[in-house]
Design brief:
There is one protein chain. α1 packs across α2 and α2 (about 110-120) runs antiparallel to α3 (about 170-180). The chain contains 5 helices and 11 strands; from the N terminus they run ββββββββααβββααα. The longest helix has about 30 residues, at about 185-215. By secondary structure, the chain is α+β, with helices and mostly antiparallel strands.
């Protein structure tokens, strides 16, 4: 890791990024990723020393409006990470994201970084033994479908097509890592090629039928959906 010069979030003194404690005020230090430029910054800093971006504030609202955890059946917390609103279970560390929030997190790298910084502090670094089972949607109570995110990530999430996505403790970080390493682009290209192959197959069948019937091949709408954005591709999970 490259050592960088940062400022202590408590006293402002210059400190190396690999320092675990400020030698001037003895504040314990931990580096997190800047939500904008992904450079190192100390946890608790208000601004990034590299690009000046405002650190994503964290707000936990213990209101009664949050739903029940689909696994633990306990009341979840409403959590604000910058502009991102989640619901989380303090017992199993699972997270509930509504449809719009999940789509935005998938498409917005700044929100991904902010959420990952929060999760790095929140998730208990122990082995969570999560029983594989269908769980109810916190909104409507109906059992959710278990889907392989982007059909190729290997991360199995629980989805209510009307209301949102349930991620067990380690699933959202894996999804973000998959996206940031180009997984969504590869999945979209794979789907595009599959749809193109299906289109050609249908055209061949139509041409064959036309020859057999002695009529011209009939046209049809193209099956290719280019999925113009990662957000739209994420939304396709709910279709």
């Amino acid at each position: 890791m490259t050592v960088q010069a940062l400022n202590c979030p408590n006293c402002g003194a210059g400190v190396a990024s690999d320092s675990s404690e400020c030698k001037f005020c003895q504040t314990r230090l931990k580096t997190v990723a800047c939500p904008k430029c992904f450079g190192s910054m100390f946890e608790g800093s208000k601004f990034c020393d590299h690009c000046g971006a405002v650190a994503a504030p964290l707000n936990v609202d213990l209101s009664d409006e949050a739903g029940d955890c689909p696994r633990c059946r306990t009341k979840m917390d409403r959590i604000g990470v910058g502009d991102t609103r989640l619901e989380g279970c303090g017992r199993c560390d699972g997270l509930w994201l509504d449809v719009d929030t999940f789509e935005t997190v998938c498409a917005d790298r700044e929100r991904q970084s902010a959420v990952l910084s929060f999760l790095d502090k929140r998730i208990i670094r122990e082995d969570h033994e999560t029983k594989v089972s269908y769980v109810p949607c916190p909104e409507c109570g109906q059992l959710m479908n278990r889907n392989n995110f982007a059909r190729s990530s290997g991360v199995i999430v629980d989805i209510c097509k009307k209301h949102g996505v349930w991620c067990d403790a380690d699933e959202l970080p894996k999804i973000v890592e998959f996206i940031q390493h180009g997984g969504m682009e590869r999945a979209r290209e794979k789907e595009r090629l599959s749809l193109e192959a299906e289109r050609r197959r249908l055209e061949d069948e139509r041409a064959s039928l036309a020859r057999m019937e002695g009529s011209a091949a009939f046209g049809g709408a193209s099956l290719i959906d280019e999925r113009a954005s990662i957000g739209a591709f994420a939304r396709s999970l709910f279709e």
